[in-house]
Amino acid sequence: MERTFIAIKPDGVQRRLVGEVISRFEEKGFTLVGLKLMSVSRELAESHYEVHKGKPFFDGLMKFITSGPVVAMVWEGDGVVAAARKMIGATNPLTAEPGTIRGDYAVSVGRNLIHGSDAIETANREISLWFKEEDLIAWEPSIMSWLV
Ligand code: RTP
Ligand code: MG
């Protein structure tokens, strides 16, 4: 089953948007298989954003991502990688469509609330960077058992 890595960045935690973001993924129908609130080390931040090393925004991005707690998550479901990117919206929140998370809640490219893996291979790399295999729970959603 396809999985993606999602992180609510420090601005999302500070603005009390953790519940809102989790609700959107739950209501869409994806399955939460990993979740933790954590401080991000410079080392982890650099490794996560390795492809952006050397770009003009890199240092600011490192300062921001390590500035406060982040909620790291793994979500599972058919097509979850691409669907999550759609739900998150464009990198620049001013061009992100209304109805997307960034489009609804953010105004600045450097404070865009949430990260989502951009491809299946990236998702696999990021999941193993942020989570130990034993901290991910594969579970079968069964709606019926909660209704009887
Ligand atoms: P993310 O990796 O955080 O999910 O964001 P993304 O795929 O939509 O965008 P990406 O190109 O991977 O950029 C990573 C983060 O770097 C910051 N950024 N700033 N000032 C700029 O031009 C600029 N470009 C990118 C953003 O915070 C972006 O989320
Ligand atoms: Mg990216």
Shape: globular
Largest beta-sheet characterization? 4 strands, antiparallel
Look at the structure and give the mean pLDDT: 96
| Spatial arrangement of strands, main beta sheet | 2-3-1-4
Poorly predicted segments: none
CATH fold-level assignment: Alpha-Beta Plaits
Could you give the distance between the termini?
28 Å
InterPro entries: NDK-like_dom, NDK-like_dom_sf, Nucleoside_diP_kinase, Nucleoside_diP_kinase_AS
EC number: 2.7.4.6
Main location: cytoplasm
Catalytic activity: a ribonucleoside 5'-diphosphate + ATP = a ribonucleoside 5'-triphosphate + ADP; a 2'-deoxyribonucleoside 5'-diphosphate + ATP = a 2'-deoxyribonucleoside 5'-triphosphate + ADP; dZDP + ATP = dZTP + ADP
In short:
The chain has seven helices and four strands; from the N terminus they run E-H-H-E-H-H-E-H-H-E-H. The chain has 148 residues and is an alpha+beta fold. The site of ribavirin triphosphate (RTP) has 10 residues, from strand 4.
